Amino acid sequence: MKINLKKADFTDIEFLFYLRNIPQYYKYYTHSRPVEWEEHINWIMPILLGVDRRDLYIITADDIKAGQIRIDYTADMAEISIALVEHFRGRNIASMALEKAIEKAKKEKDIKIFRAHVHQDNIASQKLFEKLGYQIEMQDGVWIKFVLNV
Quick check: 103 and 137 in contact, CB under 8 A? Predict the structure, then answer.
């Protein structure tokens, strides 16, 4: 299976809205509720217009949209998150896509520290980040904070 990342663009808005509002996933998000269309548009427009310190990638598997990776940048680090359509889970796509995203951020933005905040009940994501070499930095309430130094 061929895994690629492409920068999200205006043609991806509906797919990202769908992905954000899958009930079994949003329970693991910081804002654990569905979002309305207007709220989604207000969130995504600064990203697509390039005025936000964030990259948003669409993960494709054999040219089919499989999920998204978001990278939020600060001066010296990046926080990374991922979501996949259920059909594509459990097929090593997430780890391949995250490795590609980390390489892009290292190369393009000279990032050396990556973080991920994972809900304590999201065992699949915990295993994913541990598989990629992330270490548990701390737990803050229901959030486990992972860090990767590259």
Answer: no
Provide the token pair at 146. 């992972």
pLDDT tens digits, residue range 24-71?
887 787 777 899 999 999 999 999 998 988 999 999 999 999 999 999
Sign of CA dihedral 30, 10, 72, 43: negative
CATH of 3-149, one of 3.40.50.2000, 3.30.2310.20, 3.20.20.300, 3.40.630.30: 3.40.630.30
Please tell me the predicted confidence (pLDDT) of residue 41. 97
Residues 6+ apart with CB under 8 A from 16: 8, 40, 44, 56, 58, 68
Q: By C-alpha distance, which of 94, 100, 144 is closest to 120? A: 144
pLDDT tens, position by position, 74-103: 888 999 999 999 999 989 999 999 999 999
Facing residues of 3 across strands? 61
